[in-house]
Amino acid sequence: MRISRRHFNRRFSRYGTAAAIALGLGLSSSSALAQSDYPSKPVRILVPFAAGGTTDIIARAIAEPLGKQLGQAVVVENKGGGGGTIGASEAARAPADGYLLSIATVSTTASNPAINPKVAYNPLTDFTPIINIAATPNIIAVHPSFPAKSYEEFVKAVQAKPDGYAYASSGTGGIAHLQMELFKTLTGLSMQHIPYRGSGPALADVVAGQVPILFDNLPSSLPFITSERLRPLAIAAPERIAALPQVPTFKELGLEPANRMAYYGIVGPKGLPAPIVQKIHAATAQVLQDPTVRKRIEDTGAQIVANSPEEFAAQIKAEYQVYVDVVKKQKLTLE
Fold first, then answer.
1. Cys bridge to 268: 235, 236, 272, 299, which one at CB 3.0-4.6 A?
2. CATH number of the domain where residue 192 is located
3. Same domain, 157 and 249
4. Does the keyword Signal belong to this entry (predicted)?
5. Residues near 81 by Cβ (< 8 Å), separated by ≥ 6?
């Protein structure tokens, strides 16, 4: 029996289409199975900063109990550098399977991308926001030798010596840098900026008296404040905090735009399937109900947030715009 070319082509096309459909269904089924079985191996949470800082503390506070909720170990890995952008870039490039997550901060998703055109990711489109774990107040503190014991005295001292004092930050483009620049815009004060490779080294030099002023998050600086090796002057928080009831908020001082807290949340790469997002969100929210976990986080000065993926995405977008505006107004560039 002879088969015409046209008949052969029709049969081949029909079989090819059927095979393609079957293959597609197979892949779809495999993908759905992988999502329903998630996680089937350990999950990594990448902290884009060195160990010991606030981001690391919060990640490690939830890692073990989150692993118990998910049924697989959750391992924290540190990859610092570039104000958090090196680790964040790696997290953005990860497969969208939920096995490499990252802790997102204001520095990685707002301030650094706002000032650095070479950041290798778009903070609004290259991540899948899952949950904001906690928010921490930021604080202006000085070495005890600084000639000011209150915020008002601090302003007078800096006004008397324009650019005569320097402040330390965790790095150019980080939240400490841009929030201090926002503070300078609101107050008209002039100070030099000395960037460090992380909040730890910045904190160490201020405590040692090498630099007189520090803008930092509260969890890492609080132990030095309570031991009187740092003097707090003003805090970015919704209200005065119990640990430092004598310290006024930026809002009280008429500096509402600078009254911004840092956030620490979990994100995945873009395209993370909704069932995986929901599973991680639900497990993390459950962990944050644990009194032991809550106490460990709150003892640092942080406040539990536990918002929805949509709320966290909106928060990132709003914060990014704030720092885009600061960079433009202050005409800031990478140093």
1. 272
2. 3.40.190.10
3. yes
4. yes
5. 87, 197
